Amino acid sequence: MHCFACQSAINPDDSWCSKCGAAVRERVDPDSERRFVTILRADVIDSTGLVADLEPEEAVSRLEPALAAMRAAVRQFGGIVSKELGDGLAAVFGAPIADDNHAPLACHAAIELVRRVSSLGDPGLQVRVGLHSGHVVAYMVASEFSKVYEIGGAAQHLAARLEAAAEANQIFVSEACQELADGHVRFEFLGRKALRGFGEPLPVYRVMGASDLSSWRVRRARSVSRFVDRTTERALLWRAAERISASRQTVLLMGDAGIGKSRLAHEFVQDLRTGGWRLLDTECSPNLQGAPFSTLKRLVLSLLEAVAKDPDRLEDPREGLSAIHRLAIDAVLDVPISDTRWSELEPYARGRAISEASCAVVESMARHRRTVLLIEDLHWVDRASDAVIAALALLQAPNLLVFLTSRPNGMPEWIARCHAEVIAMQPLDDDSGRAMLADMLGTSVTDTDLKNRIISHTANVPLFIEEVCRGLKDNGTLRGQWGDLSLVRPIEELGIPSSIQGVIAARLDRVPRQQRQVLQVAAALGPRSSEAVVRRVSELPEDTLQDCLASLDRAELLVRIDSDLENSLEFRHEMVRQVTYESMVEKVRESVHARVLAAFESDETWRDDPDALCYHALRAKDWPKAFNYGRSAAQKCLLRSAYVDAVDYFRTAMSSLDRTPLTDLRETNAIDLRMEARMAFIWSGRVAEWIDLGKEADQRASEIDDVGRKVAAMTVMAGGQNFYGTPTEAVLLGEEVVGLAEKSGNPGWRNLAQYNLGQAYFLAGRYREAEQTFARGRAHLMGPDAIAPFGTPPKYTLLLCCMMKSFTHTVMGELDAAEQLQQQAAAIAEETGRPYDRVAAAYSGGWLKLGRNEPAAAAAILEDGFVLAQKHGIRLFVPVLACHLGIAYLEQGLFDRARGMLTEAREEAKAVGYTSAVLRSSIYLALATHRLGDVQAAQNMLREARNTARQQGFSGLEAEALFGEAMVTPPSGAANKAAILAALRAAIAIASDSGALPLKHKAESMLNEMLARGDELT
After folding, report:
1. Which one, of 668, 673, 675, lies nearest residue 694 by Cα?
2. What is the mean pLDDT, run by run of 10 residues, along the chain of 1018 residues?
3. Residue 600: burial class (beta carbons within 10 Å; 0-12, 13-18, 19+)
């Protein structure tokens, strides 16, 4: 434990620091919270020089006026002084009560701070200010006599460095603060500056002054979406507008921050103005809550502007007022008043005069034309204006529509007295949310899952949708222009933009402490939780818990969902859960998750749910349990063919195991885990990561000198080489691994190594050797003692051997043999029912039908397999199924469909890293392109595919590309005829060597036809 003042070590039982005499302060951990705030640091420049020659009392008197001005400025804009530093202070905005305007408020406070100190008339007192917005840990520090609210974290250091960099009477802010306050405040970018303690120069901005833009104009300038839906709310507003001819109508549009109140209000009043209505508008500003009549002043200015712009030359309504009422309007406008009649009035009488005068001028305006009086954000109204607005809302004036907007927590008490129609705004429905997303993202973003995730994440709150999309664009996940964005990388988590963290946090801060604890437990449990588990983990008395749940349900934060099985609790939207969760400091989070884990482990209902157990073990940082539960969850995912999820759980298990102490047992577990994980990576098409698993396992096996596990690792690498490398490299590695596997005496890995080697021979165009190798592997796997590597069912490896052997026989023209093997593969798939097996059988079945010249039947089989592969995320098969489906379309004469499918096949093969599939789809895409009339493009594609196949050793595909070149080259001119003959002869030679008899016969037939026509040149 250390002294807060001098940082000397002190004993926990000490009341005073032995070094400096300061009282020991105790940090109260339960009150600690993570907060997103804006920090203000300010100090007097060269304060030491100012007071160096003064007595202590004189020094205090010299600096105290500046400190008092600083405190007053901070408090005027809702800040909390967290620490005084002798010649300056540190303050925080947005805590302990969250405020979504913390950055603009801090900037206005800084402007006011500089103004107040400058107005003291002491030229020696000059201040500098630094501002930064970021996450901090906020907590109460208790001393013997008081409690102090303090903050900790790196964010405060950046604010201090910005303060130190600023010059006299200047305000420097970070980029984070500038982004949040931009529009409300004017900034000058100063470039990047080197700040002490930070490795790289950081962007720095200087505050130039407050902006004269309204909050609506700031929001509108930032908005990139169009107005959607709100049919119900608009109908209610129009109904109120239609009734004004009989009497004054007052409408309150109520909704939480971000729900779209201002957008709807301005869209509606614009429609009214188009219909001939006059608009008088004002807004209540959080920056001006402390300024009397600030809202009313904006209203009067709006009224005078409307008079000046009136085409009918409307008379100034002030002309018909009494003298006192005209003075009242002048007072609101801050016009100097020398008339003693005003100064002699009592304060109450002045307020009444201002209210009467305001009502009179508004009534006068409404008398000449239908008028809408729009007053926005009533929850921020200053106290003096509130009474006048109440009088305006009660005003009995036909042709006047008083239109108010407010958040629920700021709804004025007088609303009931004025019989206002309250329209409660709800989030958009799903269709409207999708329409908004389509307008922002454009048609190129076809990822329906992304749009659904955004809708679920934001609960269709318009501001949240827009800011989440903006965040994805700013961080490069979405690229392009608004209305035409493309998703360029996977999204792990949508997150919460800093611009709306305060909106949600402010709402949560209205929740009492015990309800907050319940929310935290529910947040740790996830978007939906069981009431029984919340009861057990929160450890609250039953009556207290039920009161908390009822209050949270009414507030629509944690909603009760009754079901036949149990009472469930669900967050209204995911962002509320995330803000609640992120508000907990790390130690509190770990404690909550540990309690949840213990509750789950002792409950039979959850004991068989490794997914949930892994989640909480990981976040409780219980690494051994996270490893065990992660592995179990991955195995469970494999059984239900959820391959992408299996990859995630295997990764969790691997990283958790690596956090445990290094032992030989840990390393053997790590190798085995990677071997077991290989199937999830293979099936989901993560070829590069599949190879990396093998390399890492090989290195670990070498370090502990485990020969058997080294053979397993090399087998995995050999399998990956068939997809990611060249056939020559794959054959060399495959032959080596088969030899090592046979020597190691492990038949399971030997069988898999033989399958891998057969596949390498096939890709190299060595079909006879491939057939013999597959035959040996198949024979081993069909015996009563059939063995496959752990994590792989023997019938799965047998099916693959049958599939590849069937391919080989088809390529060699031995269709009866291929048929027998296909029937065996189909029988295994029927028996297991696993999606992966069914896809593999469909692939070989479609290939066989193509070999039999039955393209329609092939297409039917391949289409089923393609759909199944996409549905279950079996990405490894998607490009090859798409390729052969495109070939089936091509052979049926469906050239457009063929080109589309083959293009998709090639792109997917590139994404997966499946080299042979890229080449094969390119060859047949060229043929489809040729049939659609683009001969030159087809020739270019085939030439490129042929050269690549030759360079990398894909001799079978080289022969197919050569035959394709012969087909697409026009037989006109000596040069073309020579090229065709050369291509055919080369294709025949390769096909003859490899045993690809059907291709050889096709090429020979075409060659003979040309020779018969006398096309051979001398």
Report:
1. 675
2. 48 51 40 83 79 67 84 89 83 84 92 92 87 83 54 83 91 92 90 88 92 76 77 89 82 87 89 89 84 88 84 77 88 86 86 90 86 89 88 86 86 83 87 85 71 82 83 81 80 74 78 87 87 87 90 84 69 83 86 91 82 92 94 89 89 95 93 89 83 90 90 86 84 89 84 89 92 90 78 82 92 94 93 90 93 94 92 88 94 94 92 88 94 92 93 92 93 88 93 92 91 64
3. buried
pTM comes to 0.64
CATH topology of domain 895-1013: 1.25.40
Please, what CATH class does the domain formed by 230-424 belong to? alpha beta
The answer for residues whose C-beta is within 8 angstroms of residue 84's C-beta and 6 or more apart is: 67
Q: In what order do the strands lie in the sheet with 558-562?
A: 528-530, 567-571, 558-562
* Interatomic CA distance for residues 135 and 617, integer angstroms: 26
What CA–CA distance (Å, rounded) separates 462 from 219? 12
- Beta-carbon neighbour count of residue 998 at 10 Å? 16
Distance separating alpha carbons of residues 324 and 339, to the nearest angstrom: 10
- Residues 134, 18 contacting (CB under 8 angstroms): no
Contacts of residue 145, defined as CB under 8 A and 6 or more positions apart, other chains included, come to 23
By the 10 Å C-beta count (0-12 exposed, 13-18 middle, 19+ buried), 863 is classed as: middle
Half-sphere exposure (Cβ direction) of 191: Cα atoms closer than 13 Å: 2
| Domain boundaries 661-765, corresponding CATH code | 1.25.40.10
C-alpha triplet 255, 256, 257: angle, nearest 5°: 120
Task: Give the CA-trace dihedral at 726, 727, 733, 739, to 10 degrees.
Answer: 170
Element (H, E) at 130: strand 127-142
How many angstroms separate the CA atoms of 822 and 133, rounded?
A: 65
Length of the chain: 1018
User: Which token pair is 970?
Assistant: 């026009």
H and E: helices and strands count for the chain: 43, 18
φ, ψ of residue 153 to 5 degrees: the values are 130, 170
Q: Which helix (H) or strand (E) holds 74?
A: helix 56-76
DSSP track, 462-520: HHHHHHHHHHHHHTTSEEEETTEEEE-S--S-----HHHHHHHHHHHTTS-HHHHHHHH
| Residue 919: closest CA among 885, 890, 947 | 947
Phi, psi angle pair for 97, to nearest 5°: -105, 120
- Output the six-digit token pair for 819: 């048929």
Cis peptide before 311, with omega less than 30 degrees from 0?
A: no
Reduce the DSSP state of residue 202 to 3 states and report it: strand
**DSSP H stretches of helix in 620-686:** 623-639, 643-657, 664-683
CATH number of 32-211, picked from 3.40.190.120, 3.30.70.20, 3.30.70.1230, 3.40.190.80 = 3.30.70.1230
Same topology, domains 661-765 and 895-1013? Answer is: yes
For residue 362, how far is the Cα from the chain centroid?
48
In DSSP terms, 40 is beta-bridged to 91, 131
Contact at 8 Å (CB) between 630 and 646? no
297 vs 595: CA distance, rounded Å: 56
Q: How are beta strands 88-93 and 26-44 bridged, if at all?
A: antiparallel
- What tokens were used for 594? 């540990």
Domains of the chain, by residue range, sit at 1-28, 32-211, 230-424, 430-508, 585-660, 661-765, 895-1013
Question: Nearest 5°: phi and psi at 484?
Answer: -155, 65
User: Angle at Cα 647 formed by Cα 642 and Cα 651, nearest 5°?
Assistant: 150
Q: Residue 835 is encoded by which pair of tokens?
A: 């999606």
